[in-house]
Amino acid sequence: MSETKKLVLGAMLISISLVLGFTGWGFIPLPLPIAGATIFHIPVILAGIMLGPWYGVMTGCVFGAFAIQQFPMFPWFVLFPARPLIGLVAGFVFMFVSRFDKKKMIAAASAGVLGSFTNSAVTLGLATIFRVFGETLEANLAVVIGAIPVIITEAVLAAVIAPAIFTVWLAYLRKPKAS
Question: Do strands 36-38 and 27-29 pair parallel, antiparallel, or not at all (unpaired)?
Fold first, then answer.
């Protein structure tokens, strides 16, 4: 893929992230201590898969900025770090698994799941380390355990949506050009 196409696709995924952030559609409020679920991780994972880890990091930074704005009750150093790592992990997982997966569907699904888990593990891990959900380790771990259904749901969504969009994108790239 040419650098121009990569730049345009990267700009499109960042634009989608901006829409998800400015409209609030990327965040799903929940009556839980974690405050919500997200679909915002999907464009970050797609950037990592389709364009590589560094585009994933850039798209993740947009997600991180909106996470800070959306959840002001949590410190930025708990919210931001996981978001760029989503794209980094998704990109490297995709590159690694692609070597063994000719159709790249398992690679895209694996990248989606591990990118999503990166978001949850790093954010909730930092929240637990810094005791965001209470003064005791037990109180913080109770919140993490209560978030498991949300974590699994987000990972399943990423495992389904990322390969589906990747397949369409791959078909578009392989389409013969009209002359």
Answer: antiparallel
Residue 176 domain-assigned (yes or no): no
Residue with tokens 């159709």: 103
d(CA 43, CA 21) in angstroms, rounded, equals 12
Task: Residue 151: give its domain's CATH number.
Answer: 1.10.1760.20
Which residue is it, tokens 């965040």?
A: 27
Mean pLDDT score of the chain: 91
Amino acid at 107: A
> 2-8, long-range: CB within 8 Å, 24+ apart, which pairs?
6/51, 6/55
Structure tokens at 29: 């409020």
User: Is residue 161 included in any domain, yes or no?
Assistant: yes
Residue 107's domain spans which residues? Answer: 3-171
User: Would residue 179 count as lying in a domain?
Assistant: no
With respect to residue 81, please indicate whether it lies within any of the assigned structural domains: yes
Q: For the chain, how many structural domains are there in total?
A: 1
The three-point CA angle 46-147-131 to 5° equals 105
Reported pTM: 0.90
What is the per-residue pLDDT across 21-48, written as a single tens digit (0 to 9) for each? 999 888 887 766 666 778 889 999 999 9
